[in-house]
Structures are given as structure tokens and as C-alpha cells.
């Protein structure tokens, strides 16, 4: 297996063409000066006066030259000031980079292609130079080891995935398990009857069997589960109600913390700011009560959403780790009626502009560049696939036209065990592994499915380990093959989760 590395997605474009820009600026200003001179010349011609440069009087010539020289001096002054500012900025940045590289260990700059242009400069002073002890104490500590975070949803939360019980989960595979879903209503966390039964009856038994595994309350999620966040985060009063309900639940069910999965804060109504305030206030309660509770956040991976939804620096301060949902990059919609890979590691050769950003590597680059610590960045990996119905059964490549979601799965979401069943029970099934993106897909007739298998999971887990990121997040245990359908002998349970766990533990 090849060693995959974090490729630089910015191509070093930030300062590369600085002097070219200055040259273009000079040309533009000179062109404007010449244009003004010729307009002035034409203005005299319009009154029937013939302008003869050699016949100018001394006063006319002096006036013309004075205007031209003044313009040129102004242009030169602007250029000098601009160049001086640029030079000072570059000098300061170069000094900061040099000092940062001297003061940081190798783990902070060992990405060969990232180092020249996307290394984020941290403060050259110690925290004690500027921050009070209270501010330092408020900062959430980063994980001391690589994590494997697993999501577990209720048996009855989705009728389509109704067999897995928490008591049947192999807790030795995951360092953290997020149990849910819960949702926010009237500013408080609401726990349904089924989840209450799990937390009351199954969590204590699970803790006895797997004492090392951390159990977190999963708050929010896709669809309507995130709607309650919008009103809850608006004011300090409503956020306080939420935090009181959270503290009560964590204490009552002896959980290790919570995972906030708001999908997603919008660019309006200060939701980005209010979300950061919520994280701060939760962390403040943890510190005030001297509770070792964990706080994690599930965040959007695509740059187009993350840029408007999150203040990365604030999240980095108050969250113990951040689960970046690096999947669902492509699935069937009416606005994107063509096949695509669920969680490609890199962009394909023919993907540019926005399409070129829809991959794991680009998202990891973006979050690191914007201030998330590497040890807190947990990369999301799906244990499910997306199905499509092809328009033409003979056009089966990536990007082939599709007319709807596929027949497999539920609304186009296909569990790994179902994909195995699909391959075992259909004739002329063609499976392709795209080396460029570490992603497989399978087709039969007009059915086309993008999914993950043992090879792609191993590739992406090695990417996480080789680039020394915080770990992997699997979504979810419910869609992995927990019944052993993919294995002919029926003895292999949770095959995708096991592969990621084995790679990260090396």
C-alpha cells in the first residue's frame, strides 16, 4: 500500500506572483497617464485648434510637463508605498515562519507539500505572556492518543436499521461512542423513550464490559434533529437552559460528555457567533464544576459551508476534538444528476473549481489552515454508500448521467451489508476500484453504488495515521456489517471498523 500524504491544495499561489502584480500595476498607471494626456490633446482639437508640440509656448509646455510629471510621481509614490508594505509584510511573515519552525517540533511541519505555503503560524510567545490562568484553563486539552470515534443510533430511531443493540456493540474497537440521536426542543435536550431505555438499562452493562470506552451524548444530527439549535443559541438565557439540561443528562446517565451535531449554522442571524458562545459557555460550566466531561463537535467538511458556519479558532479552543464529516461529497440530487464518489480521498484528474474541493484531502487542508490543531482533527469515514439509477446502463463511469437514487438502500443510503448482499445475489456485477481517490464503486444494469470496502478503508486510515491527524470517525456502527453477511462463514463482524482500528493502533 502506498503512503498517502496531505497534498497542498493552495499550490503556493498566495505570494508567488507578487512582483508580477507590481509590474502590472505600474503598466496600468502609466497607461492611464498617457490616456489622460491624449484626451487633453483631443479636447483642443475639438475647438478647431491644431496642436503642434514643437510650437508650444514655454508656459503651455511647462503646464503639460508639470501635469505628466505629477502623475508619474504619484504612480511611483503609490508603487513604492505598496512595495514597501508588501516587503515589510513578507519580512515579518518570513521571520515568524523561521521562529515558528525553530520553536515547534517536527509534528507541526512534517507535511512536505504543505510546509511552504499553508503552515499556520502560531503565537511565538507562551500562553502565560498574554492569557490569564482562567483563559488557559478554559482551553480544552487535545487528545493524547489517536481516536476512533463511532456513532451509534437507536434501534428504533430509523426503522431501516432496527437490529443493532448497544449491548451487542464491540466496544473494544472504538475509543469513543456517540449515542443518540437527541434533539433540542424548547431550548432543552429531549430524550425519547427508546433512548431513555438504552441509557438506563444498556449503558451500565456496557460500561462494565468496556470500561475504557467513552460514551458521549449525541445531540442533533441531520434533517429535523438540528432545527432546535437555531432558537436555542440566540441568547445567553436560552443557552443556559440548554446547558442545564445537558448537565442533568450527563450526571443522571453517567456519560462522559456530549457531541454537538448542528447541521449547520447559517451565515445569517449571527448563528456562527452564537455557536462559538455556546461552546464557550459549556466549557465554562465544565471548568466551574471541575467536571472532566468531554465536548466534541461534528462539523461540515466542504469549504463552502464551513467558511460561513464556523469560527475555527473558537472551536479549537473549547472542543476536545472535532469530527469533520468528510463524506456525502456526492449523492443524487436534481441539481447534480450524475454519479459520484461518497468520500474520495483526493480530487480526480478531471475535477476542477468547486468539484476539485469535494474530497477528504482538501477539507483536511482547509481545517488545518484555518486554525484547527492536527491532534484534534478527526476524519470522518462512512460505512455506507450511495446508490444511483443510471440513465444508460452502458455508461457506468464516475460522472455518468443518473435519473434518480437507486433501488438499493433507503433513499439512496446503502448499508455495507446490503452492498455485500447486492454483489452476492446479482449476475454480472462489475466492481471498480478507483486508485486515484481510494474509492470503489459497483454497478449492475442501471444500478450504480459508491461505497467503501476493506481496501479503501485501509487506504484512508493510513492517510490519517501517516499525516498524524487526531484519528478517524466512523458513521456509523449501524451501517457496518455487524451480522457477518459479507463473510461467507459469517464470522467477521464490523469488518470496516476493525480495519480502521487495526491501522490506527499501529
Automatic annotation (TrEMBL):
<dbReference type="GO" id="GO:0004568">
    <property type="term" value="F:chitinase activity"/>
</dbReference>
<keyword id="KW-0325">Glycoprotein</keyword>
<keyword id="KW-0378">Hydrolase</keyword>
<dbReference type="InterPro" id="IPR001223">
    <property type="entry name" value="Glyco_hydro18_cat"/>
</dbReference>
<keyword id="KW-0732">Signal</keyword>
<feature type="transmembrane region" description="Helical">
    <location>
        <begin position="60"/>
        <end position="83"/>
    </location>
</feature>
<dbReference type="GO" id="GO:0006032">
    <property type="term" value="P:chitin catabolic process"/>
</dbReference>
<dbReference type="GO" id="GO:0008061">
    <property type="term" value="F:chitin binding"/>
</dbReference>
<dbReference type="InterPro" id="IPR017853">
    <property type="entry name" value="GH"/>
</dbReference>
<dbReference type="GO" id="GO:0005576">
    <property type="term" value="C:extracellular region"/>
</dbReference>
<keyword id="KW-0326">Glycosidase</keyword>
<feature type="domain" description="GH18">
    <location>
        <begin position="146"/>
        <end position="506"/>
    </location>
</feature>
<dbReference type="Pfam" id="PF00704">
    <property type="entry name" value="Glyco_hydro_18"/>
</dbReference>
<feature type="transmembrane region" description="Helical">
    <location>
        <begin position="20"/>
        <end position="40"/>
    </location>
</feature>
<protein>
    <recommendedName>
        <fullName>GH18 domain-containing protein</fullName>
    </recommendedName>
</protein>
<dbReference type="InterPro" id="IPR011583">
    <property type="entry name" value="Chitinase_II/V-like_cat"/>
</dbReference>
<keyword id="KW-0812">Transmembrane</keyword>
<keyword id="KW-0472">Membrane</keyword>
<dbReference type="InterPro" id="IPR029070">
    <property type="entry name" value="Chitinase_insertion_sf"/>
</dbReference>
<keyword id="KW-1133">Transmembrane helix</keyword>
<dbReference type="InterPro" id="IPR050314">
    <property type="entry name" value="Glycosyl_Hydrlase_18"/>
</dbReference>
<dbReference type="GO" id="GO:0005975">
    <property type="term" value="P:carbohydrate metabolic process"/>
</dbReference>
Amino acid at each position: 500500500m502506498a503512503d498517502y500524504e496531505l497534498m497542498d491544495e493552495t499550490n503556493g499561489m498566495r505570494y508567488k506572483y507578487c512582483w508580477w502584480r507590481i509590474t502590472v500595476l505600474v503598466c496600468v498607471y502609466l497607461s492611464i497617464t498617457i490616456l489622460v494626456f491624449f484626451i487633453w490633446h483631443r479636447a483642443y482639437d475639438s475647438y478647431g485648434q491644431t496642436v503642434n508640440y514643437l510650437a508650444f509656448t514655454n508656459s503651455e509646455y511647462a503646464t503639460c510637463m508639470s501635469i505628466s510629471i505629477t502623475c508619474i510621481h504619484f504612480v511611483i509614490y503609490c508603487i513604492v508605498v505598496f512595495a514597501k508594505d508588501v516587503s515589510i509584510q513578507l519580512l515579518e511573515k518570513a521571520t515568524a515562519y523561521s521562529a515558528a519552525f525553530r520553536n515547534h517540533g517536527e509534528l507541526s511541519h512534517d507535511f512536505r507539500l504543505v510546509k511552504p505555503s499553508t503552515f499556520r503560524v502560531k503565537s511565538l510567545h507562551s500562553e502565560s505572556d498574554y492569557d490569564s490562568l482562567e483563559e488557559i484553563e478554559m482551553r480544552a486539552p487535545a487528545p493524547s492518543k489517536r481516536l476512533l470515534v463511532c456513532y451509534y443510533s437507536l434501534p428504533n430511531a430509523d426503522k431501516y436499521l432496527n437490529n443493532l443493540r448497544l449491548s451487542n456493540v464491540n466496544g473494544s474497537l472504538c475509543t469513543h461512542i456517540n449515542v443518540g440521536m437527541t434533539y433540542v426542543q424548547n431550548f432543552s435536550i429531549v430524550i425519547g423513550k427508546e433512548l431513555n431505555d438504552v441509557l438506563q438499562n444498556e449503558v451500565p452493562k456496557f460500561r462494565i464490559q468496556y470500561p475504557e470506552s467513552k460514551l458521549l451524548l449525541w445531540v442533533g444530527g441531520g434533517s429535523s434533529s438540528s432545527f432546535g439549535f437555531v432558537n436555542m443559541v440566540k441568547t445567553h438565557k436560552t443557552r443556559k437552559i440548554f446547558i442545564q439540561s445537558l448537565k442533568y443528562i450527563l450526571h443522571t446517565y453517567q456519560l462522559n460528555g456530549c457531541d454537538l451535531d448542528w447541521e449547520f449554522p447559517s451565515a445569517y442571524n449571527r448563528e456562527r457567533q452564537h455557536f462559538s458562545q455556546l461552546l464557550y459557555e459549556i466549557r465554562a460550566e465544565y471548568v466551574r464544576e471541575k467536571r472532566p466531561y468531554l465536548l466534541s463537535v461534528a462539523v461540515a467538511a466542504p469549504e463552502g459551508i464551513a467558511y460561513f458556519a464556523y469560527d475555527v479558532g473558537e472551536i479549537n479552543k473549547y472542543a476536545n476534538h472535532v469530527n469533520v464529516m468528510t463524506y456525502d461529497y456526492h449523492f443524487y440530487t436534481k441539481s447534480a444528476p450524475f454519479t459520484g464518489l461518497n468520500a474520495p480521498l483526493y480530487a480526480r484528474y478531471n475535477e476542477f473549481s468547486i468539484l476539485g474541493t469535494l474530497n477528504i484531502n482538501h477539507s483536511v487542508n482547509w481545517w488545518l489552515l484555518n486554525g484547527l490543531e492536527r491532534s484534534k482533527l478527526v476524519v470522518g469515514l462512512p460505512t455506507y454508500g450511495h446508490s444511483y439509477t443510471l440513465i444508460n446502463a452502458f455508461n457506468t463511469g464516475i460522472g455518468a448521467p443518473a435519473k434518480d437514487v437507486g433501488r438499493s438502500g433507503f433513499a439512496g443510503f446503502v448499508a455495507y451489508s446490503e452492498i455485500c448482499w447486492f454483489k452476492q445475489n446479482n449476475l454480472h456485477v462489475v466492481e471498480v476500484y478507483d486508485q486515484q481517490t481510494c474509492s470503489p464503486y459497483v454497478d449492475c444494469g442501471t444500478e450504480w453504488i459508491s461505497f467503501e470496502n476493506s481496501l479503501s478503508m485501509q487506504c484512508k486510515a493510513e492517510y490519517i495515521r501517516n499525516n498524524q491527524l487526531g484519528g478517524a470517525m466512523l458513521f456509523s456502527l449501524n451501517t457496518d456489517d455487524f451480522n457477518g453477511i459479507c463473510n461467507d462463514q459469517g464470522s467477521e463482524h464490523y469488518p470496516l471498523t476493525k480495519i480502521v482500528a487495526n491501522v490506527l493502533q499501529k
